Amino acid sequence: MQSKRTKIKEALINQENVGKEIIVKGWVRTIRGSKFVNFIALNDGSTIDNIQLVVDVANEKAFELCSKISTGACISCTGILVQSQGKGQSFEIQASEIEIYGTADPEIYPLQKKGHTLEFLREIAHLRPRTNTFGAVLRIRHHMAFAIHKFFNDKGFFYLHAPIITGSDAEGAGEMFKVTTLDFNNVPRNEDKTVNFKEDFFGKATNLTVSGQLESELGAMALSQVYTFGPTFRAENSNTTRHLAEFWMIEPEIAFFDIDDNMDLAEEMLKYLISYAIENCKEDLEFLNKMYDNELLARLDFVVNNSFQRLTYTEGVEILKNAGQKFEYPVDWGTDLQSEHERYLVEKHFKKPVILINYPKQIKAFYMKQNEDGKTVRAMDVLFPGIGEIIGGSQREEDYDKLANRMKEMHIPLEEMYWYLDTRKFGTAPHSGFGLGFERLILFVTGMGNIRDVIPFPRTPMNAEF
Ligand code: 4AD
Ligand code: MG
Predict the structure, then answer these.
(1) Closest C-alpha among 80, 143, 119, 123 to residue 284
(2) What separation in Å is there between the alpha carbon of 234 and the centre of ligand 2?
(3) pLDDT, tens digit, 9 for 90 and up, residues 117-129
């Protein structure tokens, strides 16, 4: 007798097991049947597909045992794997022994019925991984994380771990969460009543990072090509379908890359990741395509097979001004593009992903390489259908004086940023990089409509359950 558990995914594809006794373990999706035979659909998360258990309940003991099993219960089942006679599945198990690990009282188990709304499931985020939808999303999320490491590893990049707690708040990418061990009821103060952070854990004010870029640049100035992949935090009070307070970001940084190299890498990477999903997440994508978004698979194929449209911010603004369309936010040269503008360019005008470059310097970060015109910087945003901005990046200003001047103009304290400026002081080099929002990628790949549904435990304003 085989004592090891067989994953349902294997049981469903491995012909070799037919006729043999196997053990499967998992959570009951449905149970139905008669006085003589029960059919249990069992899922263990290894695949979206359930395996059917056929249980003979003609004898009283078996009948009693099965009467305790309901949707959500966890069981182990031993039995012979056989070719299925019923429709809709290839294999089933003729159960000989069932053990109940845990029942799930149908009166109170929240996932008793099918077809719950995503809003409802968000309120029970601790249980929603047990639904088909979240199983699919979480498996795809895993495969995308793996593919990101594979993509960079195959290209000779090194994974750099940027700190999560940072003593610098100069990136300016967003409002930061403070990190402190000070006693809020007895805050140490300086004579001028400001908080005395010298008494805090690190002896200075610290925050959760908004981006690993500045550290990524330090790595690139030694290892040539690095990337970070970690959680980042922004304390903006933005309650949208595309913003999280805690999200994951991938930030490659490459020495000797200019903005064109940077665009090429971003496009290649996105296409690689989407192709990887198409090849490795077939069943899950087909499920999502069927249940939520009939155009998902076609859209993924389209992005892989078409080149991204590249143009300047100035050209983009011209198109928007001549669009003959009324936007909620008016658009003019110098204003930041809103999601409605980005989506117009992508979805209505070009009908494909767009890379916009050379933005006005006043709406972009201090570190971006300044163009000759004195007005624009070598920024690059990749815009995707249904998402808007999926990547933000730039060529970096490598010239010490230009960088220092821009920092002074933007009132960024040079002394505190000495470590960053040192890269430009010692052996500076042209370099570029970008940040891919991991959840925005997952939104695109899954076709889900709300970013809260593509991360296991979303953190948004007024929401940090468990
Ligand atoms: O455009 P952002 O702010 O760029 C940076 O942070 C740079 N330091 C990146 C770099 O050049 N290394 O953010 C990068 C990406 C955005 O394009 C978006 O996909 C995602 O991060 N992002 C968010 N995703 C979810 N929730 C939020 N609040 C996000 N803010 C940014
Ligand atoms: Mg951005």
Answers:
(1) 143
(2) 12
(3) 999 999 999 999 9
Q: Are 388 and 344 in contact (CB under 8 A)?
A: no
Q: How many CB atoms lie within 10 A of CB 220?
A: 28
The answer to whether 189 and 195 are in contact (CB under 8 A) is yes
The answer, yes or no, to whether any atom of ligand 1 lies below 6 A from the CB of 50, is no
Residue having the nearest C-alpha atom to atom 22 of ligand 1: 437
pLDDT at 170: 65
* Minimum CA distance residue for ligand 1 atom 15: 437
For residue 91, give the CATH number of its domain: 2.40.50.140
Model pLDDT for residues 362-407, shown as the tens digit of each residue:
999 999 999 999 999 999 999 999 999 999 999 999 999 999 999 9
Does residue 114 fall inside a structural domain? no
Give residue 10's identity as a one-letter amino acid code.
Answer: E
Cα–Cα distance measured from residue 151 to residue 272, given in angstroms and rounded to the nearest whole number: 8
Contact predicate 257/276, CB 8 Å? no
Question: What are the residues facing 388 on neighbouring strands?
Answer: 384
Evaluate if residue 238 carries a pLDDT over 90: no
Structure tokens at 425: 């002081």
Is the beta carbon of 233 within 6 A of some atom in ligand 1? no
SS3 at position 173: coil
Q: How far apart are CA 329 and CA 131, in angstroms?
A: 39
Strands in 278-427 per DSSP E = 309-312, 354-360, 376-384, 388-395
Find the 249 Cα to ligand 1 centroid distance in Å. 7
Q: Which amino acid is at 297?
A: L
How many domains does one find in the chain? 2
pLDDT at 85 over 80: no
Residue 94 identity (one-letter amino acid): Q
Task: Report the separation in Å between the CA atom of 436 and the middle of ligand 2, taken as the mean of its atom positions.
Answer: 9
CA dihedral (423, 427, 428, 429) in degrees, to 10, reads -130
Q: Can you give the residue range of the structural domain that contains 355?
A: 128-154+270-453
